[in-house]
Design goal:
The chain is α+β, with helices and mostly antiparallel strands. The chain is built from 8 helices and 19 strands. A 10-stranded antiparallel sheet has the order 7-6-2-1-9-10-18-19-8-15, with helices on both faces.
């Protein structure tokens, strides 16, 4: 069949879900990078496939217009670079398309992928799901309740001794995956459960497979404007209680004010005069709520792209995942956390795809191994933090992913038993 074929979208959402599953399975069959994502407040998911066979290290420059998806670690360096996945194939609700200018160099890969995709799309037989495991096969360290509370206490001591305003510390939790676990099913379940989150499934040969549902926008650039947000403070969202009825403690209000002030100062130093700010307001993120302030600026294209580069390279890692001042907080994290965050608390999202560029902080995420998954969670520590409360906050955040996993596996059994999971 000719590569220029455009597959019309089937009339039901179920049909599009089958297309996403067929696209993912076909990419893994041919060892190709693939990303599935669903933007906030959007009904349809998208996917791109990179026909080169490997995500390539590349610095992000908003002036470059090539459509791609970016996946960046907490700290980008030669060992853990920012990765770019080319949008050679693009699956939307309208169907599957290929970039015409890449056919000459990628025709064989495209035709082989297309044949597999057609077969899987048409087949009524369920096949065993597969995904890419991490390049690092060594066991990951998961903090116990005692270890994490001790880390929080050390953070509090460091804040009191150094004058640091805030430091964000994190941990991992391991959960077992059942036979027949399907990453695309979990992705679709997260889309259904969290309509206001950026939901992603990133599967890269030689790197691994990550699934997440992030509430935090790092940077959005459209045809006219640039936006970012300050997100901080966390509390459980009781069932049946409206967001407007939630009340915030002085600690949570102060934490959110610190993040907002940091972003406000950045824009001032960048020479932005007409900054629009809204909030803080209470927003939902699954079973928890956060405080959020939004920042918005309109600029001509060249100025907008230049500012986007500054936002990305100067704000990341954000104070919401690192702390303030950033250099001192980062030094504490690298010395005391005692594990590699990898892509957790990095950023990810589409660049110049359908005229949109939206990067999100990689929160509420997990990395898949062969039979288990590692969940990554953390929280902001200030001088009036309580270690036990910080542990409970990480449990609340872990519930974002556990709730999607629970129909397939009893994840509670694999979590530390020191405190019950907050539901």
């Amino acid at each position: 069949m000719h590569p220029s074929l455009l597959y019309p979208r089937n009339p039901t959402a179920f049909a599009h879900e089958r297309e996403l599953a067929a696209c993912f399975a076909s990419a893994v069959t041919h060892s190709l990078p693939i990303v599935l994502w669903r933007p906030p407040a959007c009904s349809a998911s998208q996917a791109i496939v990179d026909l080169s066979g490997a995500a390539q290290p590349a610095a992000v420059d908003f002036h470059l217009q090539e459509p791609r998806f970016v996946f960046s670690p907490f700290l980008s360096d030669d060992r853990h670079p920012t990765l770019c996945i080319r949008a050679d194939l693009h699956l939307t609700a309208a169907g599957l398309t290929a970039r015409r200018e890449l056919w000459n160099g990628q025709r064989r890969q495209w035709e082989e992928f297309l044949a597999t995709y057609q077969a899987r799309r048409a087949s009524a037989t369920h096949t065993q799901p597969a995904w890419y495991g991490p390049s690092d096969r060594s066991p990951s360290h998961c903090s116990t309740y005692v270890e994490y509370c001790d880390l929080v206490r050390r953070a509090i001591d460091f804040i009191e001794a150094s004058g640091l305003e805030k430091v964000v510390v994190s941990r991992t939790a391991e959960v077992a995956l059942p036979a027949g676990f399907d990453p695309v099913t979990i992705f679709q379940r997260l889309c259904w459960r969290y309509p206001d989150a950026f939901v992603s499934l990133v599967a890269l040969p030689g790197v691994g497979t990550w699934i997440g549902a992030s509430p935090e926008l790092l940077l959005n650039v459209d045809q006219h404007s640039l936006s970012t947000m300050a997100l901080a403070g966390t509390q459980a969202r009781p069932a049946g209680l409206s967001l407007s009825a939630l009340r915030w403690s002085p600690k949570e209000l102060a934490e959110q004010a610190l993040v907002s002030a940091y972003i406000r100062q950045f824009f001032k130093q960048a020479g932005v005069a007409a900054l629009q700010e809204t909030g803080p307001e209470t927003v939902a993120a699954g079973n928890v709520a956060h405080l959020q302030s939004s920042f918005h600026v309109k600029l001509p294209r060249n100025q907008r792209m230049a500012l986007a580069n500054r936002v990305l390279h100067e704000l990341h890692p954000t104070s919401a995942v690192c702390g303030m001042p950033k250099d001192k907080a980062l030094a504490f994290i690298l010395q005391q956390e005692c594990y590699d965050r990898s892509f957790y608390s990095g950023y990810l999202g589409p660049l110049h795809i359908d005229g949109q560029s939206s990067l999100y902080v990689n929160l509420r995420c997990m990395q898949l191994r062969q039979t288990t998954a590692n969940l990554y969670v953390g929280g902001g520590v200030t001088d009036d933090s309580q270690p036990e409360a910080e542990w409970r906050e990480t449990e609340l955040k872990a519930e974002t992913l556990l709730a999607a996993l629970r129909p397939q596996v009893d994840c509670l059994a694999s979590l530390p038993a020191a405190l019950p999971l907050a539901l």
